[in-house]
Amino acid sequence: MKIILLGYMASGKSTIGREVSKKLNTNFIDLDDYISNREKMTISEIFKNKGEIYFRIKENKYLKEILDSEEDFILSLGGGTPCYAGNMDLIKASTATSIYIKASIKTLVDRLKNEKNTRPLVSELNDDKLSEYVAKHLFERRFFYEQADTTINSDNLTSKEVVTEIKKLLN
Known about the structure:
This is Shikimate kinase. Monomer. Substrate binds at residues 32, 56, 79, 141. The protein is α/β, with parallel strands linked by helices. The protein has a single domain, classed as P-loop containing nucleotide triphosphate hydrolases (Rossmann fold, 3-Layer(aba) Sandwich). Helix content is 53%, strand content 13%. The model has no long low-confidence stretch (mean pLDDT 93).
């Protein structure tokens, strides 16, 4: 069983992925953590020292590596992963089930306000700019996100409820 969780940053992919992996007794992989471990730098350091293009090249390389593995996994992608380097085509061509964890602009902005110090792309934005930034990105990325096999709207659900929805999908 291979499950890929995708969606915008702060949609809950990593939290949900960890919970699903425990319930299904399956390996959990956070793509950003995987990249950090392989590159021996945090994502923030990669962006600062090597730039976004370098990061996107490595992101594609490591995504392929994970998708090609024989192991079962729950994989949480970075928010931009499906949108670059043909990554969504790789995901669709794989045997994995892809699930878009969808959240509204308001939900995402509320979560991101509390996580700015760990989010290099939004760390310098004030609240008004943050809302505008998220809205623009969601508009641009929706095309990719909506290619997932399934969508779960997480706005009014707890992470445990989303996990239950995912388990129902897999039965």
